[in-house]
Amino acid sequence: MTLGGSEAMEVNVLIDDGQEGTLDPQWLARVAEEVLVAEGVDPTVELGVVVTGQENIQELNLVHLGRDEPTDVLAFPMLTGPNAEVDEDGGAFVAAPDGLTHLGEVIISYPQAVIQAGEHGHSVEKEAATLVVHGVLHLLGYDHEEPEPEQRMRAREAEILARIEEKGL
Predict the structure, then answer these.
(1) Structural domain boundaries enclosing 144
(2) Domain total for the chain?
(3) pLDDT tens profile 109-162
(4) Is 154 exposed, middle or buried (0-12, 13-18, 19+ CB in 10 A)?
(5) Residue 55 φ then ψ, to 5°
(6) Is residue 92 part of a domain?
(7) Average pLDDT across the chain, whole number
(8) Rounded to 5 degrees, what are φ and ψ at 140?
């Protein structure tokens, strides 16, 4: 799906079986695109957003992070450094024929978003937007393993979420 005025920017949304009708794919794509625009990302990018259930996200969490528990969001970046498309051995990926930079995938658990929305006392949509923003920031290199980067990431999340709310997304 090509979005809002940027000819090349592409956000592909997949709603897994069993999660249909939970979140609007076009809305999710606009939220992800808003993060990219806010971060000043070159518009020749592509990323994926997947809405899944607890079992799938738990399996991904176990296989890729060694944690046998469901989580709210996972991000699988294709870039390992600032705008550098390289594989795990440090070699360059073959450029895609579409000319887009493939940032990676953001996977969110809809059931976990429902749980967390209840805990935080806000809508599931606000929670889903928070998860998408968080995941896309991870694709762009933000991290929260140490206090200073975590503070920077949380502040940027808040700024982007405020921008999204201001635009009525």
Answers:
(1) 10-166
(2) 1
(3) 999 999 999 999 999 999 999 999 999 999 999 988 888 988 999 999 999 999
(4) middle
(5) -65, -45
(6) yes
(7) 86
(8) -90, 5
Q: What is the mean pLDDT of residues 93-98?
A: 54
* Percentage of the chain lying above the pLDDT 70 cut: 83
User: Would residue 36 count as lying in a domain?
Assistant: yes
Q: How far apart are the first and last CA of the chain?
A: 17
Is the distance from CB of 49 to CB of 11 less than 8 angstroms? yes
* Spatial separation of the C-alpha atoms in residues 143 and 148, rounded to whole Å: 10
Is 90 exceeded by the pLDDT of residue 84?
no
- Alpha carbon distance 72, 68 (integer Å): 13
In a domain, 2, yes or no: no
The pLDDT value given to residue 19 = 93
Residue 129: CATH number of its domain:
3.40.390.30
Assigned domain for 71 exists: yes
